[in-house]
Amino acid sequence: LTGEAATDMSDAAGTLWLDQAARDWSDPILAACGLDRAAMPRLVEGSASSGTVLPGVAKALGIAGSVVVAGGAGDAAAAGIGIGAVENGDAFVSLGTSAQFFLTDDRYRPDPGTLLHAFAHALPGRWFRMAAMLNGASCLDFVARLVGAGDIAALLAHTEAACRGPSRLLFLPYLSGERTPHDDPFARGVFSGLDLDCTPVDICQAALEGVAFSLLEARGLMERAGVGLASIAAVGGGARSRFWMQILSHVLGLPVVRYRGSETGPAFGAARLARMALTSEQPADVCAKPAVLDVLRPDPAWTDAYGERFQKYRALYRGLKPEFRRWRADL
């Protein structure tokens, strides 16, 4: 668009070549890869201008005038901008195809031993830590196909109507392997406890709880890293289900806040970055949190019951982990 190679800090953070604390390319790591700065794009903050659209490109697109191109952001960072997670301690979970547990920081706080990502945010002077799970709302899509439910909303409504407590089934949601906290490409999805009385709603509820348990593991990593949370926001397609978010609240033992229009978070975040690149406005004036749709609060009795199920969930993975690798070797 601009005729120049440029990248923003949040995308550059995923390359390993960025000295994230300094928000600059790392010369030692570049040298270790046989590279130098001449091979690298120019770094810009996500809310800064990376240039303007070339006249020929603007003409081809039917765009008049000089159009600023913002630095932009990776998807998780853009979601943070869209939902207003821009100050130290702001946190949210995202339930799209995959799932993320995201926390904004005011300085770079890497902790490789926790398997938490520590990345530069899309705004100057901000970073974030993130647990990245490979399996989120995709598990619900899988279950709908498995039980022949053409209408996911109807399946969720039937499951909610039948729900009287934690599911008697357990579901490991690792349909695509898992990243945080296991770093296990061999892990696979598992239903445990199936019997002849199981119904589609039993299977659906177990899947919703399995994804929630993976987010509880992510919360545990945050706690071990010294992060305390009083509540958590929820974004993404999965957050549209009030029932699922109520389960998540029970499992996490935290209030879950849903915002109006939160499913548009990454796209809205990109628009906010574009606005700041054009106007030079401050993040505090642009990146407000959206209006609250509702707040779902945990029931202590359900949280205690889910705590017991969570221990069985973790034991199930630990018991099957060596089998996952052996099964893969046999394919």
- Percentage of residues in strands: 15-25%
Q: Average pLDDT across residues?
A: 94
What series of H and E elements makes up the topology?
EHEEHEEHEHEEEEHHEEHEHEHHEH
How are the strands of the biggest sheet laid out side by side?
9-10-8-7-13-14-15
Alpha-carbon distance between the two ends: 46 Å
What structural class do you assign from the helix and strand content?
alpha+beta
Number of strands: 15
**Helix fraction by DSSP (H/I, runs of at least 4):** 25-40%
Main beta sheet:
7 strands, mixed
**Helical segment count:** 11
- Over all CA atoms, what is the radius of gyration? 22 Å
If you had to describe this structure to a student in words, what would you say it looks like?
With 331 residues, the protein is an alpha+beta fold. The protein has eleven helices and 15 strands. The strands form five sheets. Strands 9-10-8-7-13-14-15 form a seven-stranded mixed β-sheet, with helices on both faces. A two-stranded parallel ribbon has the order 1-4. A two-stranded antiparallel sheet has the order 2-3. Helix 7 crosses helix 8.
Fold topology:
Blueprint: E1 6-8, H1 9-12, E2 18-19, E3 24-25, H2 27-32, E4 42-44, E5 49-52, H3 55-61, E6 68-70, H4 75-83, E7 91-95, E8 99-105, E9 117-120, E10 127-133, H5 138-146, H6 152-162, E11 170-172, E12 190-192, H7 200-224, E13 232-235, H8 242-252, E14 256-259, H9 265-279, H10 283-286, E15 292-296, H11 300-330
